[in-house]
Amino acid sequence: xxxxxxxxxxxxxxxxxxxxxxxxxxxxxxxxxxxxxxxxxxxxxxxxxxxxxxxxxxxxxxxxxxxxxxxxxxxxxxxxxxxxxxxxxxxxxxxxxxxxxxxxxxxxxxxxxxxxxxxxxxxxxxxxxxxxxxxxxxxxxxxxxxxxxxxxxxxxxxxxxxxxxxxxxxxxxxxxxxxxxxxxxxxxxxxxxxxxxxxxxxxxxxxxxxxxxxxxxxxxxxxxxxxxxxxxxxxxxxxxxxxxxxxxxxxxxxxxxxxxxxxxxxxxxxxxxxxxxxxxxxxxxxxxxxxxxxxxxxxxxxxxxxxxxxxxxxxxxxxxxxxxxxxxxxxxxxxxxxxxxxxxxxxxxxxxxxxx
Length: 356
Known about the structure:
The chain has helices spanning 23-31, 66-83, 95-104, 124-136, 164-167, 191-199, 217-229, 244-251, 268-275, 293-299, 307-315, 320-334, 342-354; strands spanning 5-10, 36-41, 53-57, 88-92, 111-115, 139-142, 155-157, 178-182, 207-211, 236-240, 256-259, 279-282. By secondary structure, the protein is α/β, with parallel strands linked by helices. α6 (191-199) packs across α11 and α9 (268-275) crosses α12 (320-334).
């Protein structure tokens, strides 16, 4: 790729954020491929010590009023694009920033690309913003075939971008002793379903830890419901959030991870646990591409009573050698979505769009 300038837009620059702490790694990767990377963020808590990266955006000292925030973002984009030509404007999970950049970018030749991987928003205004951002985007890249909620020829599936080398752990022996749910605590993650199925399984004498936190009021209500419901179950533990930069060292303590999200939720946390050599039980068929048919039959379950319980009971009886072979194959497949290839995948997607 020839040297160019990129304007990178994102929701937050905060390494302690469980969901978005990985954005530091993304920015670092972009800095390896572009002459200059200017970052505009909706929540600037950290700075970056990279010689070709500058960070701008909203901080805690800015006015909380939305109109004032929009005006400041507009000003930042205008000033940056007045003094510098950006070949690429890349918005990571922020449709509103993509719209602002498109409207107020003085470089009309810039290519505007949106990265978005999430189901359709609930609120009408957020749905409208997403549709407008799709209209203004030259290209939309997403992680899986179901992780962008609007059908369009602009959309390409390119996989996630996990820090594979950081999360990779070679496991010579697989012994099942501790289970994990690594997830935002939300109704959409079906955590109560997982816990019920686990407690009905032959593994119910082991511990099940839930690592993650809440984002919304409804999330906190759901967490309180879960804590009250399972208060007497001493092996069900709500750990809370763990900073993303500490997560890889924490994962080595676990042997099984369970994800009960449906289509639309292709969570990078699942891929990170795959890279770490953890056995993954999953519901969303988007993950099936990482497993041979034999492994799919062992690990995939449905959101119906006893489906996950039966799968957990199966793995309880399987020999260590089989599990080690399965884990090694899955790790190899997860590597295809490594951070160090994300720029190439984005660029390939852009080029394929331009030839249509």
